[in-house]
Model the fold of this input.
Amino acid sequence: MSKTLKGAFLASILVNVLLVGVLLGELPHRVERCEVRQDKREKTLTQLPEPAQTRVREEMERLRKDNEPMRERIREAREEAIRILTTEPFDSVAYDRQVNQISELRGQMAKHMAEVVKEIAKDLPSEQRGVLAGMLRRPPPPSAK
Done:
C-alpha cells in the first residue's frame, strides 16, 4: 500500500471516528431539546378550547406522519453527502447536488407545514391563532456555556 493511500485511509477513519463522536455527543442534547419543545407545545395548546386542541393535535400528528418519508429521504441524502465528503477524490459537483437536494426536501417539508397551519388557522379566531403562532415559534438558541 502506498504512503498516499495509507494517509487517505487513515484520514478517512479519523473523519469517521470524529463524526461518530460528534453525533453521539450531540444526541443527548437533541433529545433534551426535543422534550422541552414538546412540553412547551403541550403547555401552549392548553390555552386553546378543547375542540381546537384536539384538531391541532390531530393535524400535527398527521403532518408528522406525512413528513416521515421526507425526513427519511433527508437522512439518506445527508448520509450520501457525508459519503461524498469523505471519498477521494472529492467530487464538489456531487456534493453540491446533495446539499441542494437536502435544501429542496426541507423546503418541501416547510411548505407542507405552512399549508397545514393555514388550514388549521382559517377556522380559528384571532386570539386562538395567536396561541397557535406561539406554539410554532422556535425557542431561542441555548446560551453558550
